[in-house]
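Async update (no meeting this week)

Hi team, since we skipped the sync, here's where things stand on the single-chain job. The sequence we agreed to prioritize is pasted below, unchanged from the tracker. I ran it this morning and attached the output directly underneath so nobody has to dig for it. Comments welcome in thread, and please keep replies under the output.
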Amino acid sequence: MRERFDGVNQDHPADRSAESHDAARMSMTGKLRRALMHPLPERWGSPLLSVLRAVTAFLFIAHGTQKLFAFPALQSRAPVDLASLSGVAGMLEVAGGALLLVGLLSRPVAFLLSGEMAVAYFLRHAPREFWPALNGGELAALYCFLFLFIAAAGPGPWSLDALLRRSQRSRWAHGTDDGRRWVASH
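Output:
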């Protein structure tokens, strides 16, 4: 009968099952830790960036259509004057939101919309109260930082920007983009 240095008898079946139970428990603990730390596969990151961009843009467009067309609205009201600050904001929200929805010119548009939301926060909400929860500025602050993130991270793979980039790379690699080939050869 062999004994390990910790006094466990390796030949005894009860001791072997206790060891395998401990190993299984450690394995389950590792799996649980992994599941908690990484609940989604890493490869989902880029596609989910595209989903975040599109959903944010879709929701943002509704704020612009409320200003410009009074739709959707709980109570009927007249649209705002286009020459007013709210009118300009509505145009930025509809046009910029549409561009972000399809992922075209995403980085500069997202940066512009981030600035718009910062201005909206500091002009409309911050003078009322310091805390966003009390001044009604949570959405403006959240949109500001979502758009800033999109401006930094890019639109994700499901966007017209990504499609155009892939197409341009393909043309350049095959020598069919005359402008790039001319610059490269001269």
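Quick observations from my side:
Residues 1-5, 181-186 have pLDDT under 50 and may be disordered.
The chain has two domains: 1-39, 43-164.
Reply here if anything looks off.
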